[in-house]
């Protein structure tokens, strides 16, 4: 399934973004034969998150907190759980800050294949592979 989202660029021209399902790119997803053994790749200089040879997310603008989380995962070779790497801010409660960053990290994916979430205690973050959803075909009505 693909969808279109429109947003305005600074010069007020609409920018069209395409969002694709895994099925749309399945033929290109051949880097790992077993999806469960694949690990994401964070390319810090390019500000790109990749998984299985597919671009998942590109940051047009720096997002310090999200980038810090992705850099931490990359440095730790993408273990499934890490402690909260964000610096403490006296103005924002740590659990709320982490949850807001996780929510932002899950937004604007080009392909719905990765998901980030809390570790359940609010002091860490984890990542998971989203399994492709099976779409049930509905029979056509004959008129």
> How would you sum up the global shape?
globular
- Order of SSEs, N→C? EEEEEHEHEE
Task: Give the class from helix and strand content and strand pairing.
Answer: alpha+beta
Poorly predicted sequence stretches spanning 5 or more consecutive residues: 1-9, 13-18, 26-31
Task: Report the biggest beta sheet as strand number plus sense, adding barrel if it closes.
Answer: 3 strands, antiparallel
* Radius of gyration, CA atoms, in whole angstroms: 17 Å
Instruction: Let me know the average pLDDT.
Output: 79
Strand content: 25-35%
Instruction: Tell me the number of helical segments per DSSP (H or I, 4 or more residues long).
Output: 2
- Order the strands across the largest sheet as they lie in space: 3-4-5
Number of strands: 8
| Distance between the first and last residues' Cα | 27 Å
Helical fraction equals 10-25%
Q: Strands, helices and their partners?
A:
Blueprint: E1 2-8, E2 14-20, E3 40-43, E4 48-51, E5 54-58, H1 64-75, E6 81-83, H2 94-105, E7 114-118, E8 124-129
Antiparallel strand pairs: 1-2, 3-4, 4-5, 6-8, 7-8
Quick summary:
This protein is 17% helix and 29% strand. By secondary structure, it is α+β, with helices and mostly antiparallel strands.
Question: Describe it for me?
Answer:
The protein is an alpha+beta fold. The chain has two helices and eight strands; from the N terminus they run E-E-E-E-E-H-E-H-E-E. It has helices at about 65-75, 95-105; strands at about 1-10, 15-20, 40-45, 50, 55-60, 80-85, 115-120, 125-130. The chain has a three-stranded antiparallel β-sheet. Strands 6-8-7 form a three-stranded antiparallel β-sheet, covered by helices on one side. A two-stranded antiparallel ribbon has the order 1-2. Strand 3 (about 40-45) and strand 4 (about 50) form a beta hairpin.
